């Protein structure tokens, strides 16, 4: 694959967020440390809803029983664990740019898994994959300040590489935040959004759904698309409630400023999804 200029958030920016403290995140995420939007069903706990989300994407990618599956942005390994533990995957490879996540995940010694601190642009698999899943990483593939044309080119590079790693008919399951259709914001909403961009997720740009679709054209067919902003609003509210309930312990392991920043970020995000300033896309794509 031809070398290209990297257009996404740097590893330093990713670590700025995800390397705050494993213990800090454990205080307010679910027990599997799944740090992405859940898929809620009636009567679900957060743990139930996160398992439901993982199963939805695994089944959409047709990864159950697959020989090899790639997880781009594997976090603390909840998807990897689900793939090998419940869905009979022969070998699961996870990519992350967070040293803290990789350290914790390797210590778990999950069977039939391989964890790499590696950008997808640097990934050169020895064999093809049967399925690829990426949850909550796509938002980091184009950095702030790029034009639409530049963003689409960056996203197309990702899809082109994924296509080269899959057989015809192989699938990607992708979950990503997307820009919402409600562009009317009050001043506080604008301030909070800028705070999140500058303080919580530096260098990252949320895509428009049209950019994701355009960048995959002639490489993948769209099988399904769903937009679940209410599911993310509910997930963020659950995280915020757990953080507040464990605030004293959170300050002890991450510091007062980090905790205050995350309370503001999570609280604002609840409103951004509820008011449709942001959306949450779950896409299944099939290689052509």
Order of helices and strands: HHHEHEHEEHEHHEHHHE
Distance between the termini: 19 Å
Model regions low in confidence, pLDDT < 50 over at least 5 residues? 13-17
The shape is globular
Rg from Cα? 18 Å
Helix content: 40-55%
Assembly category: single chain
Strand content: 15-25%
Query: How many strands?
Result: 7
- Which strands sit side by side, in order, in the main sheet? 3-2-1-4-5-7-6
**Count of DSSP helices?**
11
Main sheet properties? 7 strands, mixed
Task: Give the class from helix and strand content and strand pairing.
Answer: alpha/beta
Return the average pLDDT rounded to an integer.
92
Structure description:
- The chain is an alpha/beta fold.
- Helices cover 45% and strands 17% of the residues.
- It is built from 11 helices and 7 strands.
- It has a 7-stranded mixed sheet, sandwiched between helices.
- It is globular.
- It starts with 10 loop residues before the first helix and ends with a strand.
What is shown here, in short?
The protein is of the alpha/beta class and 288 residues long. 45% of the residues lie in helices and 17% in strands. It has a seven-stranded mixed beta sheet, with helices on both faces.
Give keywords:
single chain, 288 residues, alpha/beta, 7-stranded mixed sheet, 7 strands, 17% strand, globular
List the helices and strands and how they pair.
Layout: H1 11-18, H2 22-26, H3 46-60, E1 68-72, H4 78-86, E2 91-96, H5 99-108, E3 113-117, E4 131-135, H6 148-165, E5 171-179, H7 187-200, H8 209-216, E6 220-227, H9 229-245, H10 247-254, H11 256-274, E7 278-287
Parallel strand pairs: 1-2, 1-4, 2-3, 4-5
Antiparallel strand pairs: 5-7, 6-7
